[in-house]
Amino acid sequence: DQQVKQNSPSLSVQEGRISILNCDYTNSMFDYFLWYKKYPAEGPTFLISISSIKDKNEDGRFTVFLNKSAKHLSLHIVPSQPGDSAVYFCAASALKGNYKLTFGKGTLLTVNP
Amino acid sequence: ETGVTQTPRHLVMGMTNKKSLKCEQHLGHNAMYWYKQSAKKPLELMFVYSLEERVENNSVPSRFSPECPNSSHLFLHLHTLQPEDSALYLCASSQEGGQTQYFGPGTRLLVL
Predict the structure, then answer these.
(1) Of the four listed, A77, B8, B27, B80, which is most buried by Cβ atoms within 10 Å?
(2) Residue A42 has what pLDDT?
(3) pLDDT band (50, 70, 90) for residue B95
(4) Which positions in chain A touch B102 (Cβ < 8 Å)?
(5) What is the CA radius of gyration of chain A?
(6) Which of B97, B102, B105 sits opposite A97 (nearest CB)?
């Protein structure tokens, strides 16, 4: 049973527009959420995170929104750039020190010039 | 070198071979992880070491044997693997108890 789901395997966006990547989770014990970006032939790179005590975290062009009641989070990238084209993974963990990150399958974002 | 490094980047081995994957972190972290990423599947946690002690073994077959000689180095010893073990093996590190993990580039393994 997949506890973290990214239902869109791919997303295509025009340069300069907003990219919205979605993630749903089922485990109500998750209290920390992360987004990673992965280019081909590289490992995942940490992008941004959010604790369950917040509903929004912003870092430059990247903003993560958390809706705990809906068990849903999203990553907004604005404006999107061609260099943002990559696979984006959503991950979640329960309790500080638990060590386990549960990952979604990823969404391939393509930003067209 | 900075961040998390892994060697080799690519490995082809037969089912009777023995090989080892190496991971080194230069971030001053004290927890290290092995993950497996198979095609069209989420990353799967294999092993966790915290303060050089194994704290998690996620039902991984014994043909995978981890070793953590110190907080900066992590090995994954491989023997008598199966073709279905072909995957990308990723190492990560974090502060002990930290929830943000930093990944290496991975080793692409092909078992023939």
Answers:
(1) A77
(2) 85
(3) confident
(4) 46
(5) 13
(6) B97
